[in-house]
Specification:
By secondary structure, this protein is mainly beta. 14% of the residues lie in helices and 43% in strands. It contains 2 helices and 13 strands, in the order E-E-E-E-E-E-E-E-E-E-E-E-E-H-H. The chain has helices spanning 163-171, 182-200, and strands spanning 3-4, 8-15, 22-29, 33-38, 48-54, 61-66, 81-85, 88-94, 106-110, 113-121, 124-129, 138-145, 152-161. A 12-stranded antiparallel beta barrel has the order 2-3-4-5-6-7-8-9-10-11-12-13. Strand 11 and strand 12 (138-145) form a beta hairpin. It is globular.
Length: 202
Amino acid sequence: MHTHVTPFDLRAWKEGGRHDHRSGWQGVSPEFGEITLTCPLPRTSPESLVSEVRGGRLPTASFEARGMHVEGMRLPGLNRSTLRVGDRVVHMTRNRFGATLERRALALRYAGDQYRLAALDKHGYALTRAADDEDPGVRISVRETGRGKGRRLSVQVDGRAEGGDLALGLVFAGVDRSALTRIGAVRAGLSRATHFWTESQY
């Protein structure tokens, strides 16, 4: 059911020791209840890195990156990744060579709806569900503020959302989205060029 969502915050948390460390964001949405984003989950494989959001009236959403490239990463990135909401796999595509934030946005398809995830800057992003004949769509904006123990995610929803919309919007707070920003795209391009040059020397 689509509903109006009161703005809310998730606050940074962490627990556990060296081998079972967990951290992420926790908070309460008046409409959807208690929400926990763990980013990342404790590793079960050196080649798998997963962030997960669950709780309240949200379907569980997970974002997993797999491959040798994740071994040194703190959060799963957009390459070689799989996004699930509930028991559905969310189809994702993006233009790595887009010249603007909008052109680099991630396009998603979930439960028959079309979404776009665009960076606002390195601290914030917005997920938009396209309008259709039955609904005018929704925009979920997420921004990280503060430092240390005072860090928080501020969540603003424009339009009427359902649990799947919010789960999709929040799980990306546990993802390395840098490739969607201008600076991140340049760094990714330089990294690819360096990798190709190194490979060509063998």
